[in-house]
Write a structure and sequence with these properties.
The complex is a heterodimer of chains A (302) and B (796). With 302 residues, chain A is an alpha+beta fold. Chain A has helices at 14-24, 37-42, 78-83, 85-90, 92-98, 104-109, 112-118, 124-131, 149-152, 230-233, 243-253, 264-288, 292-298; strands spanning 7-9, 28-31, 50-53, 63-66, 69-73, 135-140, 143-148, 153-155, 158-159, 166-173, 178-187, 194-204, 210-218, 225-228. Chain A has a 5-stranded antiparallel β-sheet with strand order 4-5-10-6-7. In chain A, strands 11-12-13-14 form a 4-stranded antiparallel β-sheet, with helices on both faces. In chain B, the strands form 7 sheets. A 7-stranded mixed β-sheet of chain B has the order 3-5-1-12-9-10-11, sandwiched between helices. A 6-stranded mixed β-sheet of chain B has the order 7-15-14-13-8-29, sandwiched between helices. A 4-stranded mixed β-sheet of chain B has the order 18-26-27-28, with helices on both faces. Classes of the chains: A alpha+beta (302), B alpha+beta (796). The complex binds flavin-adenine dinucleotide (FAD). Chain A: Residues 1-177 form the FAD-binding PCMH-type domain.
């Protein structure tokens, strides 16, 4: 479990970084927190000839939150995002979700952008980005572009990012209207990747009737799956909606696989149960929380 | 620190060093050594057609490549079968490097030595081995079916078939008013110590001697094995176990292929060579345990009393049998637990499969046996509508029936006779601790809230402290410190603390003055090893005996100096004094340090202390020789302990679980342990052993399994997918103790090392069954498994 040889680059600026990436092309790999990449290198499942360490790009170590959303720079660690009060105030779903991502030591090192770039279909943040229809900003020597989550994720562990592109930031938009969000999952052990996990957004109208119900899932497909479940509960009162119907609708639309930890049938069952629970909880939050302060009071998953 | 040491819950003496990163584990040794790596079989069953190293030879930093063809003399012979047994009619072992055939994924074929491990792995990747595939035998069912064979010359894949019987089981079952049959299944798990194996070897050509550091549980035996394999005189080989980051059984196996190859290469190259096992290698290149299928047929009366018990076990021994058939023997003898089985027959088939070899893992077959017996007890209770504790109590061996002879032969080749134990009292304590009688009220309350809860119980008896012997050496230095050594090894148990407590107590010195060395053949050459919860019993009693002899000598020498009768002397806080006299009273006391000086008459005064021991240093009785006939210089001695047979500890666990009606998640709400390992040397250390054992028990019950596919590939050979429980998965463990001393040894102690793990699967299966209302017969169980079981029971 020692990596094959590679050339190590440690650029000091974003410009230098993209220049190196352009130069080494497909033979290069970005090294961020290393929490996913280093095990792959050690097991020789990946053997890039060049590693471009972005840990010196302190310009990218930021979390910016405003009423529209939260933008996370490439060098912000999971823990930075998790602890950011401004981000929590506008989008509590991020903290609520990050608490399910690995363990504190890994969150201290692993980056949120790295997690998106890695595009693991079991990675919670990929699902959250997809759920919120967020965007990904990429830089290369040729310039900058921003793509939607839907365009960014192209398959398990694969994205539209080119070899010479650095993901500089991702933006998680705040959902519009009166909304409540929840992340919930079942993992075999505390901090493991989920056997099934779901993040939901419930939108209520002014009469506190359900106007929208969307859910995103991890570990039930090759990439983050987003389902619009509104039809099962549209127009129903937030505290009397038929959430189990939405759960059943979700279960019917998902097509997970068996693996060594769980059968497909069990995953489908989890999706149904977790969807039902999460939507009910999110609707409660939407009804009770109109301001950031009240959201705060309703507490996260913890 | 007071002199009172034995029985005190003192903190572990080794912790400050280990917790501040000052431990020296195998990989901390020999930074300049050449590194070894191995090309291992990627196939479960294949013939090696050719090995091509053409692409590898040019690599910068490569030192040597070895295959079986290079192994001269005894190094090329099959590895030893460590524990032969007459029932093991078809024992097979592998080679240090595979010869012609491989029988599991991970078997080493080529050894590469290079300037560092990176280069060594680069080279491994460039070596091409050509295989002729053979169909693999994976899983116990396939091994039983025997349509394919692992070893061509082993019919039916059966390495051993053994039957032990006491009484006429067929007659007892035929006459029993009730008979039940159970089919049970326990999957594979493994010791998985955090530190894998590792070997470092240095050949001293000037001295013609070999020094080997190895992360082992049996350094004296590794030494003997290496001397034999490498054809060196025993006294030219020394083997040292440095700090060892866990063993849990896997490191009792020896010599590992790597343990032969690293020293062999070091001698051949005249260079230091080191190999440190990585995690993936450990999963496929060390050993596993647990996998068994069991069939139980039990006859009992209306009260639930056992009349006849007939158990058949199909044991998966993996590719080879280097450690003999200890595991299934232990299963079939320890299965009996605290009960009188009536007529008993235990039959087992030990079967080859093309998977990693099976050798003892903490518990060593007992968890499987306990599972069989305790599932049976629950089945009887369910059948008769009796409380599960009542059925158990009715079958207990009573205290007044001790010693109790089961009429069987135990794993040490000696009769299975329980020495002591008070099972009814243990059960009583456990029921109080968990609140057995109050549980139904809790269940009703939980049910009203839509929750599903269940309670479970499991009892076990553990044969501990197996022979043949251990030894100990104790010496008082001239500065009053005490050094002690025992040959068996330590891998985290806290031996240095408990052995210091034993020695301190016997010698009357403060504990922190005693330093203990383990597992270093330079310090103590006679030993067996650390396994079977034997260290405290064996080395504890041996060191006590050595310390007692030293104490006698100290009293004699001090008596001469003080002109007092040794019988009137005592040692308190490192000072020999007339019994009852306050220390410091003039002429009435002498420090142990001074006694040590006087015990070694000197010619040369190299320091102040030594001056007093020279011929001209003080008053001498010139009518006697300086060292009396039959005496020896110095304040040191050696003692051995060899038990007539094993001593039997016992314990009972109870757990309350909650199962989610929707997600089938299983949570442990409470976990209670009552444990009796005889006299406690250090309650805190025993508690720690129980906690660690329970953690592994929970792992085996709810998380850990070795997932092989049909091709014999281990699909979860990493800590990402082999789910060892984290601290977050281990429940708070509530414990209580009984102390029923063993009559078999002077200290009255029994082993405690494995206890905590034994009933894990049994107690959790019992509790989950209780919560769900149907019997769990296969462990481990995951939420997904539980969900599948629920579906099977749902009317469609
Ligand atoms: C034990 C363990 C448990 C874990 N559990 C979870 C979990 O439950 N849920 C979860 O979501 N994650 C989990 N992770 C993964 C963790 O979240 C990682 O931190 C994350 O997936 C990757 O972030 P990183 O900064 O470490 O990226 P790295 O490992 O450095 O890189 C990962 C990949 O992304 C690429 N990359 C990284 N940054 C960029 C960039 N800016 N531009 C372009 N490409 C980039 C790299 O080239 C590489 O291919 C776990 C990790 C471990 C070790």
């Amino acid at each position: 479990m020692k990596p094959a040889g590679f050339t190590y680059h440690r650029p000091a600026t974003v410009d230098d970084a993209v220049a190196v990436l352009a130069e080494v092309g497909p033979a290069g790999k970005v090294l961020a927190g290393g929490q996913s990449l280093v095990p792959l290198l050690n097991m020789r499942l990946a053997a890039p000839e060049h590693l471009v360490d972005v840990n010196r790009l302190s310009d990218l170590a930021y979390v910016r939150a405003d009423g529209d959303g939260v933008t996370v720079g490439a060098l912000a660690r999971h823990a930075d995002v998790e602890r950011d009060e401004a981000a929590y105030a506008v989008l509590p779903l991020l903290r609520d979700t990050l608490r399910h991502v690995a363990h504190p030591t890994i969150r201290n090192r692993g980056t949120t952008v790295g997690s998106i770039a890695h595009a693991d279909p079991a990675g919670e943040l990929t699902a959250v980005l997809a759920l919120l229809a967020g965007t990904v900003t990429l830089r290369s020597a040729a310039g900058e572009r921003t793509v939607t989550a839907a365009d960014f994720f192209t398959g398990p562990m694969s994205t539209c990012a080119g070899a010479a592109e650095l993901v500089t930031s991702v933006t998680f938009p705040v959902p519009e209207g009166r909304t409540g969000t929840v992340w919930t999952e079942v993992a075999r052990r505390h901090g493991d990747y989920a056997v099934c996990g779901t993040g939901v957004v419930v939108t209520l109208d002014d009469d506190l009737r359900v106007a929208g119900a969307r859910a995103a899932y991890v570990s039930v497909g090759p990439e983050p799956v987003v389902l619009d479940l509104t039809e099962a509960v549209a127009g129903e009162m937030h505290d009397a909606a038929d959430w189990p119907a939405a759960g059943r609708l979700a279960a019917g639309r998902l097509d997970p696989d068996d693996d060594i930890h769980a059968t497909a049938a069990y995953r489908t069952r989890l999706a149904e149960v977790l969807t039902t629970r999460a939507l009910r909880e999110a609707a409660g939050r939407a009804a009770g929380a109109t301001t950031a302060a009240r959201r705060e009071a309703s507490g996260g998953d913890q | 620190m007071t002199t009172k040491a034995f029985g005190e819950p003192i903190a572990r003496l080794e912790d400050p060093r280990l917790l501040t990163g000052q431990g020296r584990f195998l990989d901390d040794i020999g930074h300049r050594a050449l590194a070894a790596a191995f090309v291992r079989s990627p196939h479960a069953h294949a013939r090696i057609a050719a090995i091509d190293v053409t692409d590898a030879v040019g690599v910068d930093g490569l030192v040597a490549i070895y295959t079986h063809d290079d192994l001269d003399g005894r190094a090329g012979e099959p590895l030893p079968l460590l524990i032969p047994h007459e029932a093991l009619t078809h024992g097979r072992t592998g080679y240090a490097l595979a010869k012609d055939e491989v029988n599991h994924v991970g078997e080493p074929i080529v050894m590469v030595v290079a300037t560092d491990r990176y280069v060594a792995e680069d080279v491994c990747a460039r070596i091409r081995v050509e295989y002729e595939f053979l169909p693999p035998v994976v899983g116990i069912e396939a091994a039983r079916a025997a349509e394919l064979l692992v070893h061509d010359d082993v019919p039916g894949n059966v390495s051993a078939h053994m039957v032990q019987e006491n009484g006429d089981v067929d007659a007892a079952l035929a006459a029993a008013p009730h008979v039940l049959e159970l089919d049970l299944d326990i999957e594979r798990s493994a010791s998985t110590p955090l530190e894998g194996k590792g070997v470092h070897a240095r050949w001293d050509a000037d001295d013609a001697s070999l020094r080997v550091y190895t992360s082992t549980q049996a350094s004296t035996s590794v030494r003997a094995a290496l001397a034999a394999r490498l054809e060196l005189p025993l006294d030219r080989v020394e083997v040292i176990a440095p700090d060892v980051g866990g063993g849990f059984g896997v490191k009792i196996v020896h010599p590992w292929p790597e343990e032969v190859m690293v020293p062999w290469a070091a001698i051949r190259l005249g260079r230091e060579v080191k190999w440190t096992e990585d995690r993936r290698e450990h999963f496929v290149g060390a050993t596993h345990e647990r996998g068994q299928l069991q069939h139980v047929k039990v006859g009992f009366d209306d009260d639930g009393r056992l009349l006849g018990l007939d158990v058949t076990v199909w044991h998966d021994n993996g590719a080879y049998t280097p450690y003999g058939i200890i595991v299934p023997i232990v299963t079939t003898t320890q299965l009996l637990g605290p009960y009188k089985p009536g007529a008993y027959r235990a039959e087992f088939f030990s079967l080859y499969t093309n998977t990693v070899t099976v050798t003892p893992y903490r518990g060593a077959g007992r968890p499987q046996g306990c599972f069989a017996m305790e599932r049976t007890m629950d089945a009887i209770a369910a059948y008769l509508g009796l409380d599960r504790t009542v059925v158990r109590e009715r079958n207990f061996i009573r205290p007044d029936e001790m010693p109790y002879d089961h009429g069987l032969i135990f794993q040490d080749g000696r009769p299975l006779i329980y020495d002591s134990g008070d099972y009814p009292a243990t059960l009583d304590k456990l029921k109080k601790l968990i609140g057995w009688e109050e549980f139904e009220a809790f269940r009703a309350e939980a049910r009203a809230a839509g929750r599903r809860v269940g309670i479970g119980i499991a009892c076990y008896v553990e044969g501990t402290g197996v022979g043949p012997y251990e030894g100990g050496w104790v010496k008082v230095e001239t500065d009053g410190t005490v050094v002690a050594a025992t040959g068996l090894t330590t891998q985290g148990q806290g031996h240095r603390t408990v052995f210091a407590q034993v020695v301190a107590e016997e010698l009357g010195v403060p504990v922190d003055r005693v330093t203990v060395t383990t597992g270093d053949t330079r310090r103590f050459g006679y030993a067996v090893g650390t396994f079977a919860s034997r260290a405290a019993v064996m080395s504890g009693n041996a060191l006590a005996s050595a310390a007692r002899k030293v104490r006698q000598k100290a009293l004699r020498v001090a008596g001469e100096a003080l002109e007092a009768d040794p019988r009137d002397l005592e040692i308190v806080d490192g000072v020999v004094r007339v019994i009852g006299s306050p220390s410091g009273a003039p002429g009435g006391s002498i420090p142990l340090a001074t006694v040590a000086v006087l015990a070694n008459p000197l010619r040369y005064a190299f320091d102040r202390e030594a001056e007093r021991a020279t011929q001209f240093g003080g008053p001498v009785d010139i009518s006697k020789p300086p060292v009396a006939e039959g005496d020896s210089p110095g304040l040191e001695d050696t003692g051995f302990y060899s038990p007539p047979r094993s001593t039997f500890a016992n314990g009972m666990h109870a757990a309350i679980v909650e199962t989610d009606p929707d997600t089938a998640e299983i949570s442990i709400l409470r976990y209670c342990v009552v444990h009796d390992c005889g006299t406690l040397i250090n309650p805190r250390i025993v508690e720690g052993q129980i906690h660690g054992g329970v953690a592994q028990g929970v792992g085996g019950a709810l998380y850990e399994r070795m997932v092989y596919d049909d091709a014999g590939q281990l699909l979860n050979a990493s800590f990402m997918d082999f789910l060892m429980p984290y601290a977050t998965e281990v429940p708070v463990i509530e414990t209580d103790h009984l102390e029923t001393p063993s009559p078999l040894n002077p200290l009255g102690i029994k082993g405690a090392g494995e206890a905590g793990v034994i009933p894990g699967s049994a107690v959790l299966a019992s509790a989950i069954s209780d919560a769900e209302g149907f019997a769990i017969t296969r462990m481990p169980i995951s939420p997904s498994d539980l969900y599948s079981l629920r579906l099977e029971r749902q009317p469609r």
